[in-house]
Amino acid sequence: MKILETERLVLETLEEDSIDDLAKLLANERVHKFFPKTLTRAESCEFLKKVQQRQHTDGVSFWGVFRKNDQRFLGICGLLKQTVDEVEETEVAYRISDEFWGKGYGTEAAKGCTKYAQDVLKSASVISLILEENVQSIRVAEKNGLQFEKVSIFHGQPHRVYRKPL
Length: 166
Prior knowledge:
Number of domains: 1
Structural class: alpha+beta
Number of strands: 8
């Protein structure tokens, strides 16, 4: 199901027919450099189930990012409900396959999600939770107008919290 469109991209709910592309993304060591580990195909199937459950429960989750001109799967981007320092937040999160880095797709997808958070969800703000050494993700957040706010412990690690009021 289509969630949103940008100039070059379509973001859609992740369905079972995306598992091959999703598993390839989640097994990519470069994409997961700042995550605890890459995922096996079985773990990717579990990840997909969790994404679909979050979409059903929260109305938002990771969405598949597809290029409009050829419907190529580029990665995932979406809005995640997170609790940070005991406050419920809306996080813009993204993972784009390394073969598409440097083309502005992550920035464009995240910008589309931010607009969705503002126009559809009526969120007061969005955040991104980023490890300090993840310079590429920090750049994407800053290009979309998010500014460093603080450091918080998230999943046991210090993350930089970037925020954009909407």
